[in-house]
Amino acid sequence: MRIAVFCSSSPTIADKYLDLATDLGVAIGSRRWDLISGGGHISMMGAVARGVRSGGGKTIGVIPQMLVDIEFADHDSHELHVVTSMRERKAMIEDFSDAFIALPGGPGTLEELFEIWVGRFLKFHNKPVVILDPFGVYAPLQDLLDHLEKEGFVKPGQRELLQWCTNVEEALSHCV
């Protein structure tokens, strides 16, 4: 099983988010599942990868050359695929992965989450899409999606393709 994790690479977030990423990584690794990541070594992205490796799992990173050039790459990854663009990165992550988990994050995380969710709705893939949010970071997003659905912008059945979870075990149970 290969799990893609979308999450923050911000160095300015609270430690509780790094701990969450580490806990998720350890749980993935202890199952001997692989992590597919954006290939970075900082913040939550690095924490989840280190957690996977400490739990006995394999890490596969996909990173654009531009980010490698600014020393962002996780060179401890078992595999590190260097690509030319963010679009190529996202396509490779989607192809490599069996399921997707979004942790708290900013615009990049949301962009990845929305793209993979829309791809599932349009039947470009049939892989699980999970949001792991024990701290309620995405509660306003849930409210927005409720509003968009009420206004007719979110189609029937679209919301049900997202699994919202508050703990690691529940999130991983939705991946199989």
From TrEMBL:
Pfam families annotated for this entry?
Lysine_decarbox
A GO biological process of this protein is:
cytokinin biosynthetic process
SUPFAM superfamilies attached here?
Answer: MCP/YpsA-like
A cellular component term from Gene Ontology for this protein is:
cytosol
Q: Which residues cross the membrane?
A: none
Q: Which InterPro entries match?
A: LOG, LOG_fam
Kindly list the GO molecular function terms attached to this UniProt entry. Answer: hydrolase activity, hydrolyzing N-glycosyl compounds
Q: Which PANTHER family does the annotation name?
A: LOG FAMILY PROTEIN YJL055W
What this protein is called in its record is Unannotated protein
Q: Which organism is it from?
A: freshwater metagenome
